[in-house]
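FORM 12-B: Structure-to-Sequence Request
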């Protein structure tokens, strides 16, 4: 830069400064509103908190707390405020509430906001859907000494119990997750996974899965019927995975402690007598589900059987669920139940040495072995022939996505994948 330019720049700066000093400054009048400074607080709801107590602890004006509670009450049952759920609060330093957000569940949040900053008491509330990002993911797992259950195998792969529950529902007609899994079995699954602001926000649909259980391969692919709009799962040839009966009335963890027998030594009485069902050992309070659609015949005390639910199904079948700790909501004589609906909870009522479920099946008036009878039952309706070509194309797409995502995952985290495969 030349000396002449520097000198010229200096003169210009002096002239500008002199002119600025001569211009009168207009003072802010009542028509000019300066925005108040705000702070944003993110935290989790403490135990035993109400919306009123939660807002008051952030030193908001009392009248604003009352207005916020009143507005929220119109769109959300405030009794459902839950501890440890995340929330965000935006307030000005003078105690004015600008915005409050509380995450109700994985899909919605409660929003209280001020649409007009000039009138801080005018608060509105709404339940707003969470805008989640959804991607297609895939994972594989193996049943071994370290991961002996589906839940443990998915946990080792970095996924959550909700995915295990969804997989159990998909294969509930063909795999008994209580007894069919053995070391060396494994699975691959491709599914939708959602995030919200970078955090896990839930699973969507399972698009396809392969499961080897007890040495047998099971395939599952999701299909939406173009005519009815209903979705269901089928094998690679379009045969339904839904069975008339679920393979087990319990999802996870229980083990078969006693099978069907016409002569078994009773664990309490010590005498030999028929045992006309299958005993599942399970933790107290485990959910018990109806194995098929039906009508509840009775939900009552049954002597040595304790609290018992008896359900009538089509085809001359009845199922019995004994030793329950309590009945499911709405389960009483005459109630209609759907396959997979919770009808009670594992207990040790009646003549029992510990918590377990005695599950029985009666066909045309005679008790039959539930496990043998299940193998005889036909599958649900297959995919209509007119849709088979489209379904098979969807199967190929799902397999391709599974292979692609698993390959990308293996390249990104080879050590984790190898560890889970061992």
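FORM 12-B RESPONSE
SEQUENCE OUT:
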């Amino acid at each position: 830069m030349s000396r002449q330019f520097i000198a010229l720049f200096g003169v210009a700066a002096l002239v500008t400064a002199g002119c600025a000093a001569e211009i009168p400054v207009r003072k802010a009048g009542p028509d000019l509103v300066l925005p108040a400074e705000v702070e944003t607080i993110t935290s989790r709801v403490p135990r035993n908190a109400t919306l009123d107590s939660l807002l008051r602890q952030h030193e908001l004006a009392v009248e604003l707390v009352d207005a916020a509670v009143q507005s929220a009450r119109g769109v959300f049952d405030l009794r459902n405020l839950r501890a440890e759920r995340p929330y965000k609060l935006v307030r000005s330093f003078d105690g004015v509430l600008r915005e409050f957000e509380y995450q109700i569940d994985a899909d919605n949040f409660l929003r209280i906001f001020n649409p007009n900053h000039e009138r801080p008491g005018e608060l509105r509330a709404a339940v707003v859907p969470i805008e989640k990002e959804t991607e297609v993911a895939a994972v594989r797992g193996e049943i071994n000494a370290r991961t002996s259950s589906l839940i443990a195998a998915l946990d080792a792969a970095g996924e959550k119990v909700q995915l295990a529950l969804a997989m159990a529902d998909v294969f509930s007609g063909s795999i008994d997750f209580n007894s069919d899994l053995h070391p060396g079995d494994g699975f691959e699954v491709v599914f939708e996974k959602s995030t919200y602001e970078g955090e896990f926000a839930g699973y969507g649909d399972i698009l396809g899965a392969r499961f080897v259980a007890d040495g047998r391969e099971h395939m599952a692919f999701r299909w939406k019927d173009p005519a009815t709009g209903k979705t269901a799962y089928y094998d690679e040839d379009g045969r339904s995975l839904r069975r008339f009966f679920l393979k087990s009335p319990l999802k996870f963890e229980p083990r078969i402690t006693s099978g069907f027998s016409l002569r078994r030594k009773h664990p309490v009485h010590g005498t030999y007598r028929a045992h006309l069902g299958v005993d599942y050992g399970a933790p107290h309070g485990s959910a018990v589900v109806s194995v098929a659609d039906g009508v509840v015949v009775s939900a009552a005390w049954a002597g040595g059987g304790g609290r018992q639910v008896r359900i009538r199904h089509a085809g001359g079948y009845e199922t019995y669920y004994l030793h329950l700790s309590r009945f499911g909501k709405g389960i009483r004589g005459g109630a209609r139940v759907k396959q997979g609906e919770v009808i009670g909870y594992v207990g040790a009522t009646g003549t029992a040495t510990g918590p377990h479920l005695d599950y029985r099946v009666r066909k045309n008036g005679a008790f039959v072995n539930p496990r043998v009878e299940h193998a005889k039952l036909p599958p649900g309706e297959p995919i209509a022939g007119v849709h088979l070509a489209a379904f098979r194309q969807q199967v190929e797409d799902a397999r391709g996505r599974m292979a692609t995502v698993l390959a990308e995952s293996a390249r990104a985290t080879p050590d984790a994948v190898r560890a889970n495969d061992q």
